[in-house]
Amino acid sequence: MGDARERVVIGEITVPGVRRSVGVARRFVRDAAPDLPAVDDMVLVVSELVANAVTHTASGDEGGRVEIVLTAEDGGYRLEVADCGGAGANPHVKVDPGAETGRGMRIVDALASRWGFRLDGDRTVVWAEFPAPAGEDRGRDPFSDPG
Question: Rounded to two decimals, what is the model's pTM?
C-alpha cells in the first residue's frame, strides 16, 4: 500500500469547513464502506482528521472546504483528508499524552496501520491506511457525492 499500484476510488466528497461537517464525513465513510471490518476505525479517524482541518487550517475560515477521498489499494484502504492550508503547521502526534488537547493524531496513530501527510500546493493532505482482510473482493461499485 502507499505506492503507485492500482488505486480504486470508493468514494469522495467535499464538505464545508464547519464543525457539522465532521458528522457528514462520518456518514460518508460509513455509507461508502459499510461492510469493511475496519469501518469503525475509519469513521473515528475521519472524524479526527476533519475536525483538525476545520480547527487548525484555513478550511475553517469562511468559504473553507475539506475534501475526503476513500480508496481501495493493493492490500487495503486509504483515507485522505485535504484541507485548504495550514499556514506551515504539519500534522503530528503531541508528545504529552496527558495534554488537554491534541489527542486526535494520537488516535489516528493508534488506529491506522500507517499514516502521514503530503503537501499539495497550499493544501495539506493527511492520509491513513487500513489493511484489508485476506482474500477480500474489491469488486464494488464506486460511491461519490459531489458535495
Answer: 0.83
Q: Could you give the CA distance from residue 27 to residue 71 in angstroms, rounded to a whole number? A: 16
Pairing of strands 114-120, 7-16: unpaired
Residue ranges of domains in the chain, CATH in brackets:
21-131 (3.30.565.10)
pLDDT by residue for the chain (147 residues), tens only, comes to 545 568 899 999 999 999 999 999 999 999 999 988 899 999 999 999 999 999 989 999 999 999 999 999 888 999 999 999 876 677 767 776 666 666 788 889 999 999 999 999 989 999 999 998 765 444 444 444 444
Sequence-distant (≥ 6) Cβ neighbours of residue 144 within 8 angstroms: 9, 11, 12, 13
Any idea what DSSP says for residue 121? T
